[in-house]
Amino acid sequence: MQHQVVENFTPTFVPPITKTPTHLGRIHPEKTPLFHQGDPSKYFYKVRSGVVMTYRLLKDSQRQITGFCTAGDFLGMTSDGIQHDTAITVTTCNIVRLTRAEIQADKELQQELFTKTCLQLEEAQDMMMTLTKKSASEKVAAFLVMLANRQKSETNEADIRLPMSRQDIADFLGMSIETVSRRLTALKSKQVIGLPSRHIVHIFNMGALKKLAGARS
Amino acid sequence: MQHQVVENFTPTFVPPITKTPTHLGRIHPEKTPLFHQGDPSKYFYKVRSGVVMTYRLLKDSQRQITGFCTAGDFLGMTSDGIQHDTAITVTTCNIVRLTRAEIQADKELQQELFTKTCLQLEEAQDMMMTLTKKSASEKVAAFLVMLANRQKSETNEADIRLPMSRQDIADFLGMSIETVSRRLTALKSKQVIGLPSRHIVHIFNMGALKKLAGARS
DNA sequence: CGGCAGCTTGATTGCTGTCAAAACAGGTGG
DNA sequence: CCACCTGTTTTGACAGCAATCAAGCTGCCG
């Protein structure tokens, strides 16, 4: 866990800074925790760049990844002042930490926080659909499409980065690591994607992938 | 869709009115829609009493129930001004409709809305855990426990009302109606619950039920 | 009484989880 | 540079849970 500040991470797009807070964001290396499940919630965090994941642990050390946050997303919202999940950077991240007072003081920022919280709620509800109605293949395809969208790769063919591990994907989609692997290789044999390396997916046919993702809403 | 004001619904508990808005709530009969998926979002709604459910439909008419709202919960939050799900009363409900201006004007109400939105987000994330990590039996047990909690039945033995249909439960828990039925009768044979009528569950042993619900967080 | 909708029960299939082992990548030290 | 080690990913074999299809059952209402 050496805290080397690696600045050669590849920012595929410029974070849309709608508001410039007082403090400039801090750079967090990959796999750095922001807060832990059970911590008192003192701050809000706004992601400027990079990927943060939040997860929840159960007694038997089972894990549910509740979301991946990218540029523009907020973290640390809670109804009771206690963090319900742990947040940890997946990649190197630029993150702004905001106090409650700072939010209160800034009407516009407050509005943005509320809107983003609503968005996260919608995404969580979409996820409920994914978890219950989609097959394993559809889940994996949908996950890749989501990543592509977040990386603004709207072209029909694109390389996307998978910074998280297979286990992370499994814990997000609610399936076993083996099934994730199998479905990925299945997509590969179908010529829809290529897997040049473990953390890179080349999408040959975005249209086909989206069909397989079964976006039926 | 006759708006008859039926006042003989059974209020099992007094709604905790933390804030008294300008308008008194309106009574909505059961199965009355508040808004539909795709509608522009003009208002927020605050539930005073009764049960409202929200759901999302897919092209192939599959349905995911995203939540059941009871006294104190808000509806109508959205990130883009469009409703992402449909809200419909399950029972007769008392509901306050609030404009955005009214929320803006009232600092305290605004705070309450935000807190409740965070709570809904947490609940949605808890639901993700339930959907992925729990077996069918655990899901059904957990659902009954949730209902008992909302109906403030904290005693070890209690009658709880199941106002929604088996299909609703299935669409909430992400399983088939047959499995819901089977798991309920399994709980009955285990003497943990009784099923005096279709919409009433008698809990014989809340402790056992909670164990079966597998609350491992 | 008949009809209908919702619910329960039964039989069967198949997807996905589990266990197990092999392949692979990345890092370390000789 | 190679051998080795370790953790991750892939592949394989198998079992089990829950979905599906299908048939009865119950309560309700005309």
Please tell me about this protein's structure:
- Two copies of one chain form a homodimer.
- Chain A folds into two domains: 26-126, Jelly Rolls; 134-213, Arc Repressor Mutant, subunit A.
- The relative contact order of chain A is 0.14.
- Residues 1-12 of chain A have low confidence and may be disordered.
- The first copy, chain A, has 217 residues and is an alpha+beta fold.
- Helix content of chain A is 35%, strand content 24%.
- The interface between A and B is large, with 38 and 38 residues.
- Chain A binds a DNA duplex (30 and 30 nucleotides) through α5.
Largest interface summary: A-B, 38 and 38 residues
Question: What is the 3D shape of chain A?
Answer: globular
According to CATH, what is the topology of the largest domain in chain A? Answer: Jelly Rolls
Q: How does CATH name the architecture of the largest domain in chain A?
A: Sandwich
Strand content of chain A: 15-25%
From the alpha-carbon coordinates, what is the Rg of chain A to the nearest angstrom?
A: 18 Å
Q: How far is the first residue's CA from the last residue's CA of chain A?
A: 42 Å
Q: What number of structural domains do the residues of chain A give?
A: 2
Which residue ranges of chain A are poorly predicted, with pLDDT under 50 across at least 5 consecutive positions?
Answer: 1-12
The number of distinct β-strands of chain A equals: 11
Structure class of chain A: alpha+beta
- Assign the CATH superfamily of the largest domain in chain A: Jelly Rolls
